[in-house]
């Protein structure tokens, strides 16, 4: 196996784990709306996740760990996707917020900042800001 194969394998695994975290949020209310489904399909495509893997993750999303990204920018990118997922069905369900709080900690944000990170990210998601605005506003917290 070449070094590029190892890199691609690790990159693929991280994308699948990230996608599984978002699926976990989507399923937190035991229902996936059409808007959530559309978002998941677009995200799977953007993360280069095959249809077969997509379906497997939908069935077994709990089998994927939450792998925290190393960089702050990567954490914020994942948080952006997750916050948008919570608002995809226009309902900020308490179970989704609690799960998002756990995932935020799992992504590597400081435990004492988790509630503030979640509330700020959800506020920004509700305003449908673009990623650059989201990143700028989130960086102001740190």
Summarize the helices and strands and which ones pair or pack.
Blueprint: H1 3-26, H2 34-46, H3 51-59, H4 72-86, H5 94-106, H6 114-126, H7 131-139
Helix pairs in contact: 1-2, 1-4, 1-5, 4-5, 4-6, 4-7, 5-6
Approximately how much helix is present in the residues? 55-70%
Work out the radius of gyration. Answer: 15 Å
Structural class: mainly alpha
In DSSP terms, counting alpha (H) and pi (I) runs of 4 or more, how many helices?
A: 7
Please tell me what the overall shape is: globular
Indicate the mean pLDDT.
83
Quaternary state of the chains: single chain
Could you list the spans in which at least 5 consecutive residues all have pLDDT below 50? 1-8
Number of strands: 0
Cα(first) to Cα(last) distance is: 40 Å
The succession of helices and strands, N to C, reads HHHHHHH
Largest sheet report? none
Domain count? 1
Beta-strand portion reads: under 5%
Structure described in brief:
The chain has 142 residues and is mostly helical.
Q: Which properties best describe this structure?
A:
142 residues; mainly alpha; 7 helices; 0% strand; disordered N terminus
Describe this structure in words.
With 142 residues, this protein is mainly α. The protein is 68% helix and 0% strand. It has seven helices and no strands. The longest helix is centred in the N-terminal third of the chain and has 24 residues, at 3-26. The termini are far apart. Mean pLDDT is 83; it is low at 1-8.
